[in-house]
Design goal:
Layout: H1 2-17, E1 21-22, E2 33-45, E3 49-54, E4 63-68, H2 78-82, E5 88-98, E6 101-105, E7 112-115
Parallel strand pairs: 1-2, 4-6
Antiparallel strand pairs: 2-3, 2-5, 3-4, 5-6, 5-7
Keywords: Signal
Signal peptide: 1-19
Protein name: DNA-binding protein
Length: 118
């Protein structure tokens, strides 16, 4: 019976570890691989990168996804990335911190999922 109890506890722990988090919660999970979800309020295209800002436009975003120029095509292309504006989006990857704002580097379109708004 104890083995079953430990197994059930393990399932609960594992499911909690892989649960989606909100953009505002991202700072609590630095260096972990997570799926971060929220509303995209701004997509900015520069010569160096595409920035996907969540919850507010720069400089007030709570979290952002960054696609470096070399990875734009692999991430779906500029038009597909711009189309994320105004949508509920999830990004999966390793959380990093730059200038006190959590972010995930996107190098593959499979890291991005558009969800229906709730």
């Amino acid at each position: 019976m104890k083995i079953l109890g430990y197994g059930a506890a393990l399932v609960v722990i594992l499911s909690a570890a892989y649960a989606d988090i909100t953009a505002r919660e991202a700072h609590q999970y630095m260096h972990a691989t997570q799926t971060v979800c929220g509303d995209v309020k701004q997509v900015t295209v520069t010569n160096k990168a595409v920035f996907i800002n969540f919850d507010a436009a720069y400089p007030n975003q709570s979290f952002y996804g960054v696609v470096w120029q070399r990875d734009v095509d692999a991430a779906g292309g500029v038009y597909a990335l711009r189309a994320l504006h105004g949508k509920n989006v999830c990004i999966t990857g390793q959380l990093q911190l730059y200038k006190q704002i959590p972010n995930i580097h996107i190098d593959d379109g499979a890291q991005i999922e558009v969800r229906k708004k709730r």
